[in-house]
Amino acid sequence: ELSHQEMVKRVRAIKQKFGKKLFIPGHHYQKDEVIQFADATGDSLKLAQVSAENTLAEYVVFCGVHFMAETADILTNDNQKVILPDMRAGCSMADMATIKQTEKSWKVIQATFGDSVLPLTYVNSTAAIKAFVGERGGATVTSSNAKEMVTWAFKQKERILFLPDQHLGRNTAYDLGVPLNQMAVWNPNTTSFEYEGDLEQVKVILWKGHCSVHENFTVANVEKIRAEKPDMNILVHPECSREVVDQSDYAGSTTYIIDRIEQAPKGSKWAVGTEMNLVNRLIKAHPDKEIVSLNPFMCPCLTMNRIDLPHLLYTLEQLDNGNVINQIIVDQQTADFAKLALQRMLEHS
Ligand code: 13P
Ligand code: SF4
Protein backbone atom coordinates (compact mmCIF):
# COMPACT_ATOMS: atom_id res chain seq x y z
CA GLU A 1 0.00 0.00 0.00
CA LEU A 2 1.57 3.26 -1.14
CA SER A 3 1.13 6.50 0.76
CA HIS A 4 -0.55 9.45 -0.93
CA GLN A 5 2.79 11.24 -0.92
CA GLU A 6 4.51 8.33 -2.63
CA MET A 7 1.80 8.10 -5.32
CA VAL A 8 2.09 11.82 -6.02
CA LYS A 9 5.84 11.45 -6.35
CA ARG A 10 5.52 8.58 -8.80
CA VAL A 11 2.94 10.29 -11.01
CA ARG A 12 5.17 13.36 -11.13
CA ALA A 13 8.18 11.30 -12.12
CA ILE A 14 6.34 9.53 -14.95
CA LYS A 15 4.90 12.80 -16.23
CA GLN A 16 8.37 14.30 -16.26
CA LYS A 17 9.80 11.30 -18.06
CA PHE A 18 7.14 11.30 -20.80
CA GLY A 19 7.09 15.08 -21.27
CA LYS A 20 4.99 16.21 -24.23
CA LYS A 21 4.38 12.60 -25.26
CA LEU A 22 1.82 12.42 -22.48
CA PHE A 23 -1.21 14.70 -22.20
CA ILE A 24 -3.64 14.65 -19.31
CA PRO A 25 -6.92 16.53 -19.80
CA GLY A 26 -9.02 16.84 -16.63
CA HIS A 27 -12.71 17.71 -16.35
CA HIS A 28 -13.74 20.23 -13.69
CA TYR A 29 -15.67 17.51 -11.84
CA GLN A 30 -12.55 15.46 -11.19
CA LYS A 31 -11.07 15.04 -7.72
CA ASP A 32 -8.31 17.43 -6.58
CA GLU A 33 -5.91 14.49 -6.23
CA VAL A 34 -6.29 13.94 -9.98
CA ILE A 35 -6.81 17.49 -11.25
CA GLN A 36 -3.45 18.56 -9.79
CA PHE A 37 -1.82 16.57 -12.61
CA ALA A 38 -3.99 17.84 -15.45
CA ASP A 39 -2.19 19.56 -18.33
CA ALA A 40 -5.49 21.17 -19.28
CA THR A 41 -8.66 21.55 -17.25
CA GLY A 42 -12.02 22.45 -18.68
CA ASP A 43 -15.65 21.71 -19.31
CA SER A 44 -16.57 19.15 -21.94
CA LEU A 45 -16.36 21.67 -24.80
CA LYS A 46 -12.91 22.88 -23.87
CA LEU A 47 -11.59 19.36 -23.36
CA ALA A 48 -12.88 18.36 -26.80
CA GLN A 49 -11.16 21.41 -28.29
CA VAL A 50 -7.82 20.83 -26.57
CA SER A 51 -7.84 17.16 -27.52
CA ALA A 52 -8.43 18.12 -31.15
CA GLU A 53 -5.62 20.67 -31.05
CA ASN A 54 -3.03 18.48 -29.40
CA THR A 55 -1.13 16.59 -32.08
CA LEU A 56 2.09 16.07 -30.10
CA ALA A 57 0.93 13.66 -27.44
CA GLU A 58 1.28 9.97 -28.12
CA TYR A 59 -0.85 9.16 -25.07
CA VAL A 60 -3.88 11.08 -23.89
CA VAL A 61 -4.77 9.91 -20.39
CA PHE A 62 -8.26 11.28 -20.07
CA CYS A 63 -9.42 12.20 -16.58
CA GLY A 64 -13.14 12.44 -17.10
CA VAL A 65 -15.80 9.96 -18.16
CA HIS A 66 -16.10 7.44 -20.99
CA PHE A 67 -17.99 9.58 -23.53
CA MET A 68 -15.36 12.33 -23.18
CA ALA A 69 -12.56 9.85 -23.83
CA GLU A 70 -14.44 8.58 -26.89
CA THR A 71 -14.72 12.14 -28.16
CA ALA A 72 -10.98 12.62 -27.61
CA ASP A 73 -10.30 9.42 -29.56
CA ILE A 74 -12.46 10.65 -32.44
CA LEU A 75 -10.78 14.05 -32.55
CA THR A 76 -7.16 12.95 -32.18
CA ASN A 77 -4.99 11.36 -34.88
CA ASP A 78 -4.85 7.64 -35.57
CA ASN A 79 -1.43 7.32 -33.96
CA GLN A 80 -2.53 8.92 -30.68
CA LYS A 81 -3.86 6.61 -28.00
CA VAL A 82 -6.59 7.69 -25.60
CA ILE A 83 -6.68 6.02 -22.20
CA LEU A 84 -9.35 6.13 -19.48
CA PRO A 85 -7.80 5.39 -16.06
CA ASP A 86 -10.87 3.44 -14.93
CA MET A 87 -13.16 1.78 -17.45
CA ARG A 88 -16.04 1.96 -14.98
CA ALA A 89 -16.11 5.75 -15.32
CA GLY A 90 -19.26 5.93 -17.42
CA CYS A 91 -22.14 8.39 -17.30
CA SER A 92 -25.64 7.43 -16.27
CA MET A 93 -27.09 10.09 -18.57
CA ALA A 94 -25.23 8.79 -21.62
CA ASP A 95 -26.52 5.30 -20.76
CA MET A 96 -30.10 6.59 -21.03
CA ALA A 97 -29.90 6.63 -24.83
CA THR A 98 -28.70 3.41 -26.44
CA ILE A 99 -28.24 3.20 -30.19
CA LYS A 100 -30.93 0.51 -30.42
CA GLN A 101 -33.47 2.67 -28.64
CA THR A 102 -32.49 5.62 -30.79
CA GLU A 103 -32.94 3.76 -34.07
CA LYS A 104 -36.29 2.44 -32.95
CA SER A 105 -37.40 5.85 -31.69
CA TRP A 106 -36.31 7.59 -34.86
CA LYS A 107 -38.62 5.40 -36.92
CA VAL A 108 -41.63 6.47 -34.87
CA ILE A 109 -40.53 10.11 -34.84
CA GLN A 110 -40.14 10.08 -38.61
CA ALA A 111 -43.49 8.38 -39.04
CA THR A 112 -45.02 11.15 -36.94
CA PHE A 113 -43.20 14.21 -38.29
CA GLY A 114 -41.85 13.12 -41.65
CA ASP A 115 -38.57 14.72 -42.62
CA SER A 116 -39.01 17.85 -40.49
CA VAL A 117 -36.78 16.80 -37.55
CA LEU A 118 -33.04 17.39 -37.07
CA PRO A 119 -31.38 15.32 -34.33
CA LEU A 120 -29.02 17.03 -31.90
CA THR A 121 -27.18 15.28 -29.12
CA TYR A 122 -25.57 16.59 -25.98
CA VAL A 123 -21.93 15.47 -26.00
CA ASN A 124 -22.89 13.44 -22.94
CA SER A 125 -23.77 10.50 -25.19
CA THR A 126 -22.04 7.49 -26.69
CA ALA A 127 -20.03 7.73 -29.90
CA ALA A 128 -22.71 5.60 -31.58
CA ILE A 129 -25.36 8.23 -30.83
CA LYS A 130 -23.08 11.00 -32.07
CA ALA A 131 -22.59 9.01 -35.26
CA PHE A 132 -26.34 8.49 -35.64
CA VAL A 133 -26.85 12.23 -35.37
CA GLY A 134 -23.90 13.11 -37.61
CA GLU A 135 -25.09 10.77 -40.35
CA ARG A 136 -28.44 12.59 -40.40
CA GLY A 137 -27.04 16.10 -40.70
CA GLY A 138 -27.26 16.89 -37.01
CA ALA A 139 -24.67 18.03 -34.51
CA THR A 140 -23.46 17.64 -30.95
CA VAL A 141 -23.93 20.39 -28.38
CA THR A 142 -22.46 21.12 -24.97
CA SER A 143 -23.94 23.20 -22.20
CA SER A 144 -21.73 26.13 -23.22
CA ASN A 145 -22.91 26.30 -26.85
CA ALA A 146 -26.40 24.78 -26.66
CA LYS A 147 -28.13 28.06 -27.59
CA GLU A 148 -25.97 28.60 -30.65
CA MET A 149 -26.45 25.00 -31.77
CA VAL A 150 -30.22 24.93 -31.29
CA THR A 151 -30.46 28.21 -33.21
CA TRP A 152 -28.34 26.65 -35.95
CA ALA A 153 -30.55 23.54 -36.00
CA PHE A 154 -33.73 25.56 -36.46
CA LYS A 155 -32.21 27.08 -39.59
CA GLN A 156 -32.03 23.57 -41.06
CA LYS A 157 -35.32 22.03 -39.99
CA GLU A 158 -38.64 22.91 -38.44
CA ARG A 159 -38.16 20.63 -35.44
CA ILE A 160 -35.38 19.19 -33.35
CA LEU A 161 -34.92 15.95 -31.44
CA PHE A 162 -32.69 16.65 -28.43
CA LEU A 163 -30.83 13.67 -26.91
CA PRO A 164 -30.34 12.52 -24.17
CA ASP A 165 -30.84 15.29 -21.55
CA GLN A 166 -34.39 16.61 -21.46
CA HIS A 167 -33.40 19.39 -19.04
CA LEU A 168 -30.63 20.96 -21.09
CA GLY A 169 -32.88 20.66 -24.14
CA ARG A 170 -35.86 22.24 -22.41
CA ASN A 171 -33.89 25.01 -20.71
CA THR A 172 -32.10 25.93 -23.91
CA ALA A 173 -35.22 25.97 -26.10
CA TYR A 174 -37.11 27.92 -23.44
CA ASP A 175 -34.36 30.57 -23.34
CA LEU A 176 -34.65 30.85 -27.11
CA GLY A 177 -38.37 31.56 -26.83
CA VAL A 178 -39.90 28.18 -27.59
CA PRO A 179 -42.98 27.89 -25.33
CA LEU A 180 -43.20 24.84 -23.08
CA ASN A 181 -46.36 23.65 -24.84
CA GLN A 182 -44.34 23.25 -28.03
CA MET A 183 -41.99 20.77 -26.36
CA ALA A 184 -42.86 17.08 -26.10
CA VAL A 185 -41.05 14.50 -24.01
CA TRP A 186 -40.20 11.31 -25.89
CA ASN A 187 -40.10 8.24 -23.69
CA PRO A 188 -37.77 5.70 -25.33
CA ASN A 189 -38.85 2.92 -22.98
CA THR A 190 -42.53 3.10 -23.88
CA THR A 191 -41.70 4.44 -27.39
CA SER A 192 -44.33 7.11 -27.00
CA PHE A 193 -44.69 10.84 -26.51
CA GLU A 194 -45.57 12.21 -23.10
CA TYR A 195 -47.55 15.10 -24.41
CA GLU A 196 -51.08 16.34 -24.19
CA GLY A 197 -52.08 18.30 -27.23
CA ASP A 198 -51.72 18.34 -30.95
CA LEU A 199 -48.29 16.94 -31.88
CA GLU A 200 -48.39 19.09 -35.03
CA GLN A 201 -47.40 22.13 -32.98
CA VAL A 202 -44.38 20.46 -31.34
CA LYS A 203 -41.05 22.08 -32.18
CA VAL A 204 -38.76 20.35 -29.72
CA ILE A 205 -38.74 16.63 -28.95
CA LEU A 206 -36.98 15.99 -25.66
CA TRP A 207 -35.46 12.57 -25.06
CA LYS A 208 -36.43 11.46 -21.57
CA GLY A 209 -32.98 11.37 -19.99
CA HIS A 210 -31.41 13.32 -17.17
CA CYS A 211 -28.27 13.70 -15.08
CA SER A 212 -28.53 11.83 -11.80
CA VAL A 213 -26.25 14.39 -10.13
CA HIS A 214 -27.99 17.60 -11.17
CA GLU A 215 -31.39 16.06 -10.58
CA ASN A 216 -30.57 16.25 -6.88
CA PHE A 217 -30.96 20.03 -6.84
CA THR A 218 -34.60 20.70 -6.13
CA VAL A 219 -37.10 23.50 -5.82
CA ALA A 220 -37.19 22.70 -2.09
CA ASN A 221 -33.43 23.42 -1.91
CA VAL A 222 -34.00 26.77 -3.62
CA GLU A 223 -36.90 27.68 -1.34
CA LYS A 224 -34.89 26.84 1.76
CA ILE A 225 -32.00 29.10 0.71
CA ARG A 226 -34.39 31.92 -0.22
CA ALA A 227 -36.07 31.67 3.20
CA GLU A 228 -32.91 31.36 5.28
CA LYS A 229 -30.42 33.46 3.32
CA PRO A 230 -32.28 35.84 1.04
CA ASP A 231 -29.07 37.63 0.02
CA MET A 232 -27.59 34.49 -1.56
CA ASN A 233 -27.27 34.25 -5.33
CA ILE A 234 -28.36 30.92 -6.72
CA LEU A 235 -26.27 29.62 -9.61
CA VAL A 236 -27.01 26.28 -11.29
CA HIS A 237 -26.05 24.09 -14.24
CA PRO A 238 -28.70 23.78 -17.02
CA GLU A 239 -28.82 20.00 -16.43
CA CYS A 240 -31.03 20.99 -13.48
CA SER A 241 -34.78 20.92 -14.05
CA ARG A 242 -36.67 23.84 -15.65
CA GLU A 243 -38.32 24.68 -12.31
CA VAL A 244 -34.96 24.90 -10.54
CA VAL A 245 -33.36 26.94 -13.33
CA ASP A 246 -36.43 29.18 -13.40
CA GLN A 247 -36.14 29.97 -9.69
CA SER A 248 -32.38 30.45 -9.75
CA ASP A 249 -30.60 33.71 -10.44
CA TYR A 250 -28.12 32.34 -12.95
CA ALA A 251 -27.71 29.16 -14.97
CA GLY A 252 -24.89 28.06 -17.22
CA SER A 253 -22.23 25.51 -18.07
CA THR A 254 -19.41 24.50 -15.79
CA THR A 255 -17.19 27.19 -17.27
CA TYR A 256 -19.92 29.79 -16.86
CA ILE A 257 -20.29 28.84 -13.19
CA ILE A 258 -16.56 29.19 -12.55
CA ASP A 259 -16.40 32.56 -14.35
CA ARG A 260 -19.43 33.91 -12.47
CA ILE A 261 -17.88 33.11 -9.11
CA GLU A 262 -14.48 34.47 -10.14
CA GLN A 263 -16.00 37.76 -11.26
CA ALA A 264 -18.25 38.08 -8.22
CA PRO A 265 -17.45 40.81 -5.70
CA LYS A 266 -15.77 40.05 -2.38
CA GLY A 267 -18.23 39.15 0.32
CA SER A 268 -20.91 38.03 -2.13
CA LYS A 269 -22.85 34.86 -1.31
CA TRP A 270 -23.48 31.93 -3.62
CA ALA A 271 -25.42 28.69 -3.51
CA VAL A 272 -24.17 26.56 -6.37
CA GLY A 273 -26.04 23.69 -7.99
CA THR A 274 -23.41 21.50 -9.61
CA GLU A 275 -21.08 18.59 -8.95
CA MET A 276 -19.45 18.37 -5.53
CA ASN A 277 -15.76 18.39 -6.50
CA LEU A 278 -16.22 21.62 -8.42
CA VAL A 279 -18.23 23.25 -5.63
CA ASN A 280 -15.56 22.29 -3.08
CA ARG A 281 -12.83 23.66 -5.33
CA LEU A 282 -14.70 26.94 -5.70
CA ILE A 283 -15.13 27.15 -1.92
CA LYS A 284 -11.38 26.64 -1.43
CA ALA A 285 -10.37 29.04 -4.19
CA HIS A 286 -12.58 31.89 -2.96
CA PRO A 287 -12.27 32.28 0.80
CA ASP A 288 -13.39 35.90 0.38
CA LYS A 289 -16.85 34.76 -0.80
CA GLU A 290 -19.45 32.66 0.95
CA ILE A 291 -20.08 29.61 -1.22
CA VAL A 292 -22.25 26.60 -0.39
CA SER A 293 -23.75 23.72 -2.32
CA LEU A 294 -27.39 24.36 -3.22
CA ASN A 295 -28.10 20.88 -1.89
CA PRO A 296 -26.52 20.77 1.59
CA PHE A 297 -25.74 17.06 1.21
CA MET A 298 -23.44 17.86 -1.72
CA CYS A 299 -23.80 15.93 -4.96
CA PRO A 300 -20.88 13.85 -6.16
CA CYS A 301 -20.80 12.27 -9.60
CA LEU A 302 -19.94 8.70 -8.66
CA THR A 303 -18.54 7.81 -12.06
CA MET A 304 -16.36 10.94 -12.34
CA ASN A 305 -15.04 10.00 -8.91
CA ARG A 306 -13.96 6.57 -10.08
CA ILE A 307 -10.92 8.25 -11.55
CA ASP A 308 -8.71 8.60 -8.51
CA LEU A 309 -5.01 8.84 -7.78
CA PRO A 310 -4.44 5.06 -7.51
CA HIS A 311 -6.11 4.47 -10.91
CA LEU A 312 -4.21 7.31 -12.53
CA LEU A 313 -0.92 6.04 -11.14
CA TYR A 314 -1.65 2.44 -12.15
CA THR A 315 -2.40 3.40 -15.76
CA LEU A 316 0.70 5.57 -15.95
CA GLU A 317 2.92 2.87 -14.46
CA GLN A 318 1.58 0.39 -16.99
CA LEU A 319 2.37 2.88 -19.76
CA ASP A 320 5.84 3.30 -18.34
CA ASN A 321 6.25 -0.48 -18.58
CA GLY A 322 5.14 -0.41 -22.20
CA ASN A 323 1.57 -1.61 -21.57
CA VAL A 324 -1.27 0.45 -22.92
CA ILE A 325 -4.25 -0.48 -20.77
CA ASN A 326 -7.82 0.86 -20.88
CA GLN A 327 -7.45 2.28 -24.35
CA ILE A 328 -10.64 3.79 -25.74
CA ILE A 329 -11.07 2.93 -29.41
CA VAL A 330 -14.04 4.09 -31.46
CA ASP A 331 -14.37 2.04 -34.65
CA GLN A 332 -13.63 3.90 -37.86
CA GLN A 333 -17.12 4.09 -39.31
CA THR A 334 -18.66 5.31 -36.05
CA ALA A 335 -15.80 7.76 -35.61
CA ASP A 336 -16.24 9.21 -39.11
CA PHE A 337 -19.94 9.99 -38.67
CA ALA A 338 -19.50 11.13 -35.07
CA LYS A 339 -16.78 13.48 -36.24
CA LEU A 340 -19.23 15.15 -38.62
CA ALA A 341 -21.51 15.92 -35.67
CA LEU A 342 -18.62 17.15 -33.54
CA GLN A 343 -17.15 19.29 -36.30
CA ARG A 344 -20.47 21.00 -36.94
CA MET A 345 -20.38 21.97 -33.27
CA LEU A 346 -16.73 23.01 -33.16
CA GLU A 347 -17.26 25.27 -36.19
CA HIS A 348 -19.97 27.10 -34.28
CA SER A 349 -18.14 27.40 -30.95
P1 13P B 1 -20.11 20.60 -19.00
O1 13P B 1 -18.70 20.16 -18.79
O2 13P B 1 -20.38 20.80 -20.45
O3 13P B 1 -20.52 21.79 -18.18
O4 13P B 1 -21.07 19.37 -18.60
C1 13P B 1 -21.25 18.97 -17.31
C2 13P B 1 -21.29 17.51 -17.16
O5 13P B 1 -22.20 16.95 -16.63
C3 13P B 1 -20.18 16.75 -17.63
O6 13P B 1 -20.44 15.42 -17.48
FE1 SF4 C 1 -22.97 12.11 -16.45
FE2 SF4 C 1 -24.12 13.83 -14.77
FE3 SF4 C 1 -21.87 12.62 -14.08
FE4 SF4 C 1 -21.86 14.48 -16.00
S1 SF4 C 1 -22.31 14.80 -13.85
S2 SF4 C 1 -20.80 12.50 -16.03
S3 SF4 C 1 -23.85 14.11 -16.95
S4 SF4 C 1 -23.85 11.62 -14.45
TrEMBL record:
Chain sites annotated for binding [4Fe-4S] cluster: 91, 211, 301
Q: Name any Gene Ontology BP term.
A: 'de novo' NAD+ biosynthetic process from L-aspartate
Q: What is its EC number?
A: 2.5.1.72
The note on cofactor binding and number reads: Binds 1 [4Fe-4S] cluster per subunit.
Q: Which GO terms describe its molecular function?
A: 4 iron, 4 sulfur cluster binding; metal ion binding; quinolinate synthetase A activity
**Keyword line:** 4Fe-4S, Cytoplasm, Iron, Iron-sulfur, Metal-binding, Pyridine nucleotide biosynthesis, Transferase
Q: Does the keyword Ribosomal protein apply?
A: no
Residue positions annotated to bind iminosuccinate are 27, 44, 122-124, 143, 237-239, 254
Compartment annotation: Cytoplasm
- Claim: Protein transport is one of the keywords in the record: no
Reaction it catalyzes: iminosuccinate + dihydroxyacetone phosphate = quinolinate + phosphate + 2 H2O + H(+)
Matching Pfam families, A to Z? NadA
Task: Look at the named UniProt entry and state the broad enzyme category this protein falls under.
Answer: transferase
InterPro entries reported in the protein's UniProt record = NadA, NadA_sf, Quinolinate_synth_A_type3
Q: What does this protein do?
A: Catalyzes the condensation of iminoaspartate with dihydroxyacetone phosphate to form quinolinate.
Similarity field: Belongs to the quinolinate synthase family. Type 3 subfamily.
Protein name from the UniProt record: Quinolinate synthase
